[in-house]
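tl;dr need the bound structure. longer version: we got a ligand (S-adenosyl-L-homocysteine) that a collaborator sent over and nobodys looked at where it sits. i said id run it. heres the input, straight from their email, havent touched it
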Amino acid sequence: MIENNKLEEMIETIDLEGVAPTKEPLRQYYFIKKAREYVKEANNKLGRTLTYCVVNFGCQMNARDSEKLCGVFDSIGYLETTEDQADFVIFNTCTVRENANDKVYGRLGRLKPRKQKNPHMMIGLCGCMMQEGLVVEKLKNSYAYVDLIFGTHNVFKLAELICARFESGDMVIDIWEDTNKIVEDLPVERKYPFKSGVNIMFGCNNFCSYCIVPYVRGRERSREPIAIINEIEKLAKDGVKEVMLLGQNVNSYGKSLEPKMTFAELLEEVEKVEGIERIRFMTSHPKDLSDELIDVMAQSKKVCKHLHLPLQSGSTKILKQMNRKYTKKEYLTLAAKIKTAIPDISLTTDIIVGFPGETEEDFEDTLEVVRKVRYDSAFTFIYSKRTGTPAAVMENQISDEVVKERFNRLLKEVQTISAQVTCVHEGNTMDVLVEEVNTQDDSLVTGRLSNNLLVHFKGNADLIGTIVPVKLTKCMGFYYLGEQVNSEMKEA
Ligand code: SAH
Ligand code: SF4
Ligand code: F3S
């Protein structure tokens, strides 16, 4: 990550009279400088500053991309505002489930009347949904008022694309099929001053049969450890206490690097960064979660006591059809091994109900795993047919009624267990990283435990970004009420 003053120095040296450099990130520095001129000109004409809003629909990976988009908007002179006020609205889309797509079309329709009234308004669409050919066709045909369409592989090109839009006055479309490029050192605007996502890898090679992500995020590529550590050191200097290492399957980090590096080795390097007090990561695929990683987690002072370990299904037969590459027994053995090595760990998961061919017996297997592992929480999803994935053409798609009924049964089971598991810390004193003033009661602040549970307790905005010991006085099912205690009174 480049520091702002260095970035400015680099941009300063760019000569706009010359042609745009071909090398990145220099090329983008050129277009940032050029876009600044266009924005300045528009601001002068308008008599006010143009505003923007990036709306995020997807996972943490998308959220991090959105921070990069915001960084470029800030850098070229736009002011951030809310969606209903913004001159430039960008939807950073997700396509993992059908209803994610529907949401975007709905929101897009609502922008049309605003665009007709405001001649300066621009609408951009990017993210995973844009990597699907049919979506882009539909947008071209039925949503001609969209100004800018780009995908997941060229988020770094925003300044260049904005310049192209200013110059052509027409819809700009730039979608890359795939990439092996990782462009570093562009501006980013963090949503929180005290915590940050850090990409460690992009793409996915697993091709779970229901999942669209490998098609829209491309092949797996890991960032160089030195770039990751540099970024985290700069974040720490900037006051960040907690980093979330991001990848679709962090356990396969470093396999394609020269020399190779494992995810556990990377964690050990991140642990050494002074100022960073908490390390989280997302997501871990059970098939290649190593003993080495469990050891590092067990010994680490900074890696949080939380592991998100997506199960998807508890049936070995369905897991095979999902191409998950583990069995029910292997998953249970792994979960037990993790709990033995790290007794206070919180396990969370993702589960899909109604995958094609799922019988009552298969579903019972899922319930059994839920009962045995006793997750702190679980994201439960109804299977969604994604055109282009192998599962979409499988026979025996399950009827809506059956899926709904199973989904409700699963949810009840998950919630009952979660309420019991969550409450085991009642009465203990644990460290809380304070995140915000409570949105409902401003005499309270809200923060997170290492295991990711939320705690509300008396305090004010000065505490935001600090880690304080809090006695967990009352468990409320999915969160705690607590009281801050003096540091000396804290238990180990
Ligand atoms: N890389 C992560 C998951 C990314 S997608 C992993 O492997 O765990 C997040 C979650 O969305 C998945 O874990 C899965 O539970 C869910 N999901 C993905 N495709 C889906 C589909 N077609 N229908 C329903 N849920 C889906
Ligand atoms: Fe999708 Fe599987 Fe890759 Fe996760 S690991 S993103 S579920 S294909
Ligand atoms: Fe969605 Fe793309 Fe993430 S499809 S879940 S935003 S990788």
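gonna send this back to them w/ a short note. The first helix runs from residue 4 to 13.
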